[in-house]
Amino acid sequence: MSQEFDVVVIGAGPGGYIAAIRAAQLGMKVACIDEWKNADGGPAPGGTCTNVGCIPSKALLQSSENYEHAKLHFADHGIGVKGLSLDVGTMVARKDAVVKQNNDGILYLFKKNKVSFFHGRGAFAAAKDGLYQIAVEGAKKEQLTAKHVVVATGSNARALPGADFDEDRILSNDGALRIGEVPRKLGLIGSGVIGLEMGSVWRRLGAEVTILEGLPTFLGAVDQQIAKEAQKAFVKQGMKIELGVKVGAVKATKKGVTVAYTDAKGGEQNLSVDRLIVSIGRVPNTNGLNAEAVGLALDERGAITVDAECKTNLPNVWAVGDVVRGPMLAHKAEEEGVAVAERIAGQHGHVDFNIIPWVIYTSPEIAWVGKTEQQLKEAGTAFRSGTFPFLANGRARALGDTTGMVKMLADASTDEILGVHIVGPMASELIAECVVAMAFRASSEDIARICHAHPSLSESTKEAALAVDKRALNF
Ligand code: FAD
Ligand code: NAI
Fold first, then answer.
1. Which of 43, 134, 142, 385 registers the highest number of CB atoms within 10 A of its CB?
2. Ligand 1 center to 354 CA (angstroms)
3. Which distant-in-sequence residues (6+ apart) come within 8 Å of 41 by Cβ?
4. 454: left (phi over 0), alpha (psi -120 to 50) or beta
5. For 388-415, how does the pLDDT look when each residue is reduced to its tens digit (9 = 90+)?
């Protein structure tokens, strides 16, 4: 017997579980299907983000930062730490406990909002009379009937051709988050977001880290003034970053991995490491969805084709998050999930793709929203720029972390803020003010005239706004 729902969501990552909750809040009968299993085989909703992405990476980033602070920086405060030790097993177990709290939190939220959760793989079975039949393959088989379907099946790590992930020597983000001991030498391919975050974790814990990047420019999508500052800091910390390389054969043995590559000058090189993390981007995941059964259209990258409102080629079938176009970010997936639920309910859900913030949780953190200087130049937009270094910020000095700056870009004639770029302490938190400002189409003068608490890092944002008009007060 088929169970009937207004909305069936396939995937309980940040896109799917949030869509399910919002649809339930709006009075619809909702089911959410997810196949992720925890170590005991039980359900582990939350997707990549909760299980092998945002949450566990931030847990390990925090632990490794604490360790590095104790090792290198506590002495500056007059705090001596004798016999400092590291137990990677405990660190990884703590990370697993944080993940579990999040999995359990989502199951609780499903209950609270009366979302029916099905643990198993969801697949299109048929479309009939304007309704969709969804088969669930889990511990038992179920058949669901849906008026609306929201596909939120996420993405998987892209493998390097000829170097399949074995999660022992050649690691995706999954294996990178559960290495049992600190590798003496760690290699990473790709100096994108995962490369830098995971490279930072294991470098802080003692690994000798080398990142091989194909592009000649470091963090090419980031404002280049900010990217250069970040690169300087990472190199100073001991991270080896080689740009413009061409990776050749990768060979894994029981003991380690060798990577043959051509460096930027055309020289043939070999890198030997204990473990290799491949972080060269992610691919949309529609495995097992049986999209063909209903004729759901995919693009040439394998992503589900959607319009700006997340509508697919099929009536009442929607898709959100990593499985569709746009940045692969948890908060982008969530925003799309909310907007789709609201559209199904006849409301006017909206996502402003121009002001989705990005954060790289390294130290220094890198965060930005809106246009970069290079994008504005390319578009021929006249702009004014203001920067303020954390070196001149009292709170940053008290923290003992004065790396980096806030950079604000504003339209030359209207003064509307067009982009804000931050490298430095707590950039992840500071960027929120800038996103709010841009959502309200604030000018740099608006920020400059707002009272910011002293001493706070946020004063640097205000000073960068003042600097747009060449009247910073503390620099
Ligand atoms: P996912 O989170 O991938 O969830 C998809 C879910 O669908 C999974 O649970 C999967 O099991 C399930 N599923 C797939 N197919 C089926 C099926 N047929 N039936 C049933 N279930 C199915 N983003 C940030 O914004 N901030 C960060 O700090 C951040 N850190 C990251 C760190 C790492 C190491 C990685 C890999 C990613 C990180 N991301 C981060 C990106 C973020 O994880 C993704 O953008 C986000 O998880 C996408 O959400 P989603 O709901 O689209 O898909
Ligand atoms: P990425 O797209 O950020 O970086 C991939 C890097 O690999 C690029 O610099 C690219 O030029 C390079 N590359 C690609 N092919 C290569 C090759 N053959 N040889 C050498 N270099 C190569 O992808 P990444 O780091 O895998 O992360 C995937 C996505 O996950 C991110 O784009 C982001 O959307 C999300 N994510 C977000 C985080 C956050 O918000 N803090 C943290 C981690 C991941």
1. 134
2. 22
3. none
4. beta
5. 999 999 999 999 999 999 999 999 999 9
1, pLDDT greater than 80: no
Q: Report pLDDT digits (tens) over 174-201.
A: 999 999 999 999 999 999 999 999 999 9
- Is-cis flag, bond preceding 364, omega within 30? yes
Q: Is the Cβ–Cβ distance between 33 and 134 less than 8 Å?
A: yes
Residues of each domain in the chain carrying CATH 3.50.50.60: 3-157+283-351, 170-280
Distance 48 CA to ligand 1 centre (A): 3
Residue 425 Cβ contacting ligand 1 at under 6 Å? no
Return the CATH fold of 355-468. Enolase-like; domain 1 (3.30.390)
- Looking at all shown ligands, the one closest to residue 18's CA atom is 1
Q: Does ligand 1 lie within 6 Å of residue 329's CB atom?
A: yes
Of all protein residues, the one whose alpha carbon is nearest to atom 36 of ligand 1 is 53
* Residue whose CA is at the smallest distance from ligand 2 atom 43: 194
Instruction: State which ligand 2 atom lies nearest to the alpha carbon of 246.
Output: 19
Q: Is 73 a catalytic residue?
A: no
Please state, in angstroms and rounded to a whole number, the distance separating the CA atoms of residues 418 and 405.
17
Q: Give the pLDDT mean for 47-76.
A: 98
Ligand 2: centre distance to CA 192 (Å): 4
> The domain at 3-157+283-351 falls in which architecture?
3-Layer(bba) Sandwich (3.50)
Ligand 1 centroid from CA 260, angstroms: 31
Q: Which of 474, 409, 412 has its CA nearest to residue 447?
A: 409
